[in-house]
Design a protein that fits this description.
It is an enzyme of class 3 (hydrolase). By secondary structure, this protein is an alpha/beta fold. Strand 10, helix 15 and strand 11 form a beta-alpha-beta unit. Helix 5 crosses helix 6 and helix 9 runs antiparallel to helix 13. It starts with a helix and ends in a 7-residue tail after the last helix. Bound molecules: 2-acetamido-2-deoxy-beta-D-glucopyranose (NAG) (2 copies). The site of one 2-acetamido-2-deoxy-beta-D-glucopyranose (NAG) has 6 residues, from loops.
């Protein structure tokens, strides 16, 4: 307890020491978000894409929005039954908008729809698109009592089951970053993986102990996760006053804040800086402090395991002193996997990616780009040629879609 109290004091002191000016432009985060009427109405329909909002309820009562884009601008190619479903799962502090925030020729979501795929877009609990729960509101502590483990077991499994049941078809999966942690843990479960036709993982993560992100490493060494829990802050929202204070705290004098994105994700070769204002209309999305804590546990311990509740908490919950690990070897060899990773990625470090590959029974198809950072894989203005062309041919090779 004494340790906790002194940590709390330390944080308060640090917050007081932070000068208000900050070293980067906060005003963009203070602007209201564009979330009215949902993602379809905000981005997709105005650009000429058919898009329906659907709601999926998880076993633990969260109401998730899923967008359905049945075809691209050119209309249907072949019959509805022919269009193969693909499900897109965004990463941490992001939402389904991630797949659509560049131009229609650059963004993966649009590209897939225009290539005749039946596109479904996931939005995990707590994002601006999925703020609902049957019982709790975002102001309740109970609303934020989860980490990526629940995002995998409940959100991902519920959303994929919904698409599987609606389309009567196995589903192609695309995930980025935290979306790949969710997939790699969920796909160790037979019931989940049997719904998947093939999986494309952008910046795949199951281990995080070689992370090089200065920003994240500083947050880990400051015990930011534990401090926030001690302070009773269960929602982590960088668009709130507290969130902005935290960013200031992590920046202050310790890194080049003019390039904050690079200090978090690694240097991105092909990020469109002049589009930053537009990105900030939608992102970052909130997540839970418990999720941050779980991710930091992975960084500290080098494990790919369930949430660590401490010895007694683990014993009560799991019957073991340590949280059970997810075993990548339980992902069936028959699941075709494609992975793309980058030499400048400060979050999905190539060393950790290689450990993930080693842990799998199957041999994934690999795409590596030396100059790509973490965000390039979804937002690079060249990703269509550098990454998505390869991803599309992987999917085509896995089905009769070769006729496209
Ligand atoms: C970068 O973003 C700006 C502003 O949205 C846009 O006008 C420009 O076309 C984009 N550049 C590329 C290469 O996509
Ligand atoms: C990696 O990305 C860069 C930047 O777009 C591109 O010029 C290069 O051709 C890519 N390399 C490979 C091997 O695809």
């Amino acid at each position: 307890m004494a340790k906790r109290a002194s940590l709390l004091l330390l944080l308060l002191l640090l917050l007081l020491l932070v000068d208000d000016g900050g070293c980067w432009d906060e005003s963009m985060l203070r602007r209201p978000l564009s979330t009215g009427n949902g993602l379809c109405a905000q981005i997709l329909r105005p650009l000429g894409y058919p898009c329906e909002e659907q709601t999926v309820q998880t076993k633990d009562g969260f109401l998730l929005s899923v967008q359905h884009i049945p075809h691209g601008r050119g209309g249907l190619r072949g019959s509805v039954e022919d269009a193969h479903p693909v499900f897109l799962q965004h990463g941490l502090f992001q939402g389904g908008d991630t797949w659509f925030v560049n131009s229609v020729d650059e963004s993966l979501g649009f590209i897939l729809a225009d290539h005749g795929f039946d596109v479904w877009v996931g939005n995990v609990r707590g994002t601006h698109w999925s703020p609902g729960h049957v019982e709790f509101s975002v102001h309740d502590k109970a609303f934020w009592d989860w980490s990526w483990e629940e995002l995998a077991e409940y959100d991902l499994v519920s959303m994929i089951s919904y698409v599987y049941a609606t389309t009567h078809s196995k589903v192609f999966f695309v995930g980025h970053s935290q979306g790949t942690i969710m997939a790699l843990s969920a796909f160790t479960m037979p019931d989940a993986v049997e719904m998947i036709e093939a999986a494309a993982l952008l910046c795949p993560i199951s281990y995080l102990d070689h992370i090089t992100s200065r920003f994240v490493l500083r947050a880990v060494s400051l015990h930011l996760d534990q401090l926030l829990i001690t302070l009773g802050l269960h929602q982590l929202n960088f668009r709130s006053d507290m969130g902005i204070q935290i960013l200031d705290l992590l920046c202050d004098g310790h890194m080049d804040c003019n390039n904050m994105l690079a200090s978090i994700t690694g240097e991105n070769c092909c990020f469109n800086m002049t589009r930053m204002d537009y990105y900030l209309e939608y992102e970052p999305h909130p997540s839970s402090t418990k999720n941050l804590n779980h991710l930091f546990q992975m960084i500290r311990k080098g494990t790919f395991a369930r949430y660590d509740y401490g010895l007694w908490g683990n014993f009560k919950r799991y019957g073991t002193l340590k949280p059970p690990a997810f075993n990548l070897a339980n992902i069936p060899k028959s699941l075709p996997i494609w992975m793309a990773y980058g030499g400048n990625d400060a979050l999905a470090d190539p060393t950790d990616v290689k450990r993930t590959i080693k842990g799998l029974k199957s041999k994934p198809v690999l795409l590596y780009n030396d100059s790509y950072g973490h965000i390039d894989f979804i937002m690079s203005v060249n990703a269509k040629d550098d990454v998505y062309a390869n991803l599309l041919s992987f999917f085509r090779s896995r089905s009769w879609l070769s006729s496209y």
